[in-house]
Amino acid sequence: MRKCVEQFTFTDMNYQPSDSRYDTMQYNRCGRSGLKLSALSLGLWHNFGGVDVFEKGRAIVRRAFDAGITHFDLANNYGPPPGSAEENFGEILRKDFGGNLRDELIISTKAGYGMWPGPYGEWGSRKYLLSSLDQSLKRMGLDYVDIFYSHRPDPDTPLEETMGALDTAVRSGKALYAGISNYPAPMAKEAATILRRLGTPCIIHQPRYSMFDRWVEEASQPFGKGLLDVLEEEGMGCIAFSPLAQGLLTKRYLHGIPEDSRVAKPHGFLKQEQLTEERLAQIRALNEIAQLRGQSLSQMAIAWLLKDDRVTSVLIGVSSVEQLDDNLLSISGAPFTGDEIYDIEVVLGNGPKP
Asked: What is the pLDDT of residue 92?
């Protein structure tokens, strides 16, 4: 037996998964594949790197699994430093998920962003993708991942080469399924066509999607179709990342900009100029609608994405067990009424819907 498999025979007996872990979570079929994903998936983009507290991340993963979240989403560059989220997750797997528990997990990783110096350390070449996958498996102590993604399209590498690398990853047994992320609608359709021809269907796309960022709904010109339309046609699932718009769709900014917020940090993804008075007014108005629904703003924002059957799962990123528990309540709210959808669209500036 290979060493990386033997590592999973040693489980920390302090953790015993909840017997009721599958009682309340929803599981949605991923496009036309045989795979089902938990309606909420846990992303390890932030808060699981080498600069973070390991035991805090470990507690979040345990709680997520106890609540029925089976899908854990990583990428080679998650950290910081890059690679450390996979290393920490691998340690959590070794400590807590021994025996047959691996078979209850969907573990995904990606390659596309910069990882090492030189011309072979990023983008979408066959050389980079397959080398990166091997490194990711080593960091996590795994024989395979369930989903391997091309993390972003490469403007200089032929799409056939990038998709061919995904096909090789699946055929080699190092990944069970192939996926893409951040691909615009026309390129997503072409990628799906190539993979289908190779005999390895593309089952999932991971785009950025939230109430404040709805590019996936917009028709690409002159292509004439939106990404969600393409995914439905091609039988691909959709897993939305940044569902809370990097924290804007939470209670955090209801009263301005906290000093410790992402907006206040000079090198963060959010910039202070993005938080205009108009945006703050939208956040407050959406919060009022959420309160009338008996939800927090973040719960409503996640539920709003899941109301679309084309959205298989929503990728949540949390910094504490308490925040995770709050997000988990998003799947137990009442369905949206027509009036609520109308009110939300008015707040977002989209006007009446036919």
From this structure: 98
Domains and CATH numbers, the chain: 3-272+295-334 (3.20.20.100)
Indicate whether 308 pLDDT > 70: yes
Helix axes 126-140, 159-171, angle to 10 degrees: 40
Q: How far apart are CA 226 and CA 3, in angstroms?
A: 46
What average pLDDT does range 334-342 have in this prediction?
Answer: 97
pLDDT at residue 3, rounded to an integer: 36
Find the length of the chain.
354
Tell me the pLDDT tens digit for each residue of 9-56. Answer: 444 558 999 999 999 999 999 999 999 999 999 999 999 999 999 999
Give me the chain's average pLDDT, please. Answer: 92
Q: Name the pairing type of β-strands 237-240 and 202-206.
A: parallel
**SS (HEC) of the chain:** CCHHHHHHHCCCCCCCCCCCCCCCCCEEECCCCCCEEECEEEECCCCCCCCCCHHHHHHHHHHHHHCCCCEEECCCCCCCCCCHHHHHHHHHHHHHCCHHHHHHCEEEEEECCCCCCCCCCCCCCHHHHHHHHHHHHHHHCCCCEEEEEECCCCCCCCHHHHHHHHHHHHHCCCEEEEEEECCCHHHHHHHHHHHHHHCCCEEEEECECECCECHHHCCECCCCECHHHHHHHHCCEEEEECCCHHHCCCHHHCCCCCCCCCCCCCCCCCCHHHCCHHHHHHHHHHHHHHHHCCCCHHHHHHHHHHCCCCEEEEEECCCCHHHHHHHHHHHHCCCCCHHHHHHHHHHCCCCCCC
Query: Is the pLDDT score of 170 beyond 60?
Result: yes
